[in-house]
């Protein structure tokens, strides 16, 4: 079984604050100044063991008319839940939508993440690659970091 990880403490505290603001209906761009171009959504996904709805704020990546969500801190619970459920709900402010999630194979995920890192993704350092890294390095990096394409249901 793959090892699961946890986001650092400061990220979990920021997630708690961000979740509270999103549930109150405040559309926010990001908890950090350098995170501004990414829209923050509240991802609600059914737990793979408990069956209860779990909530976590995520930054959606938008590229070529498609939307993606990445797990910068490795195989964390929300990513494992999304993989198992295959669908989730996204909310932002008062707007909510149901999406189908498809985990990208490593070759496809590497291409998307390479473009994101070149554009200055704020969590690029967690993937262990730089804008100058080769495609093979990106393929190795995304093995431990799930990347999902989200489509409207």
From TrEMBL:
Signal peptide: none annotated. It comes from the Bacteria. One of its GO terms (molecular function) is oxidoreductase activity. InterPro entries: F420H2_quin_Rdtase, Split_barrel_FMN-bd. This is Nitroreductase family deazaflavin-dependent oxidoreductase. It comes from Ktedonobacter racemifer DSM 44963.
